[in-house]
Amino acid sequence: MPRRAFLLLLLAAAACLGLAGALDDSRPDQARAVAPAPAPCDEVTEATTDVDPRRDLRLGPLVILGARRTVGAPRDGFAGDGYKLGVTLPDGVVATLSVPRELRGRVGFVYRHSTQDRVAARGVAGADPSVRFTACPPAGEPGRTGWPGGMVTDRRRCARLTLAVAGGPTMRRGVPLGRRCRG
Q1: Are residues 26 and 43 in the same domain?
Q2: Total number of domains constituting the chain
Q3: What Å distances lie between residue 65 and 30, 34, 68, CA to CA?
């Protein structure tokens, strides 16, 4: 089979499997980076502007609501695979939350209805390893956009996640998913 025909066949198979766009060739240091799933504006909720440091976890501009309350708690969300943890982001901000390569398949995000269906069918393996949150245009007063959803994990752990803010810093921080993070 000629090389070009083989490549076309490979691309067609990837498209049928829903893998088109999953590779990011603009990053040569990560030949198999996963394109982030977009968190849609049609699934947002009115976001709280109250952040309680005893309950919530702030990663730069992104706030994970209730993350600190998972410590010692059973995984009772998503059919026992994780925790319901909404996130909020201020107006005008774009941020991508990612699971590092070494935790993929063991930790993931559920911030879209389609992902929730995959997690119901396949467990943690069905979760998104990366999600791009783009603050939606305010419907009223400026503030924050909030997304319902959560995170799934194969066991209680402190998961070191990466947050990349468009036009800003990239940070890595521990997020408690049933287990306290040290340091």
Answers
A1: no
A2: 2
A3: 31, 25, 8
pLDDT per position as a tens digit, 109-168: 999 999 999 999 999 999 999 999 999 877 666 688 899 999 999 999 999 999 999 999
What is the span of the domain harbouring residue 153?
Answer: 35-177
Contacts made by residues 70-78, CB under 8 angstroms, sequence distance 24+:
70/176, 70/177, 70/178, 71/176, 71/178, 71/179, 71/180, 72/178, 73/178, 74/178, 75/152, 75/153, 75/156, 75/178, 77/150, 77/152, 78/110, 78/116, 78/119, 78/120, 78/150, 78/152
One domain for residues 8 and 83: no
Q: Are residues 150 and 97 in the same domain?
A: yes
What pTM did the predictor assign? 0.77
Q: Are residues 119 and 161 in the same domain?
A: yes
Whether residue 49 is found in the same domain as residue 26: no
Chain segment 15-68, per-residue pLDDT in tens: 333 333 333 333 333 334 568 998 877 767 666 667 888 999 999 999 999 999
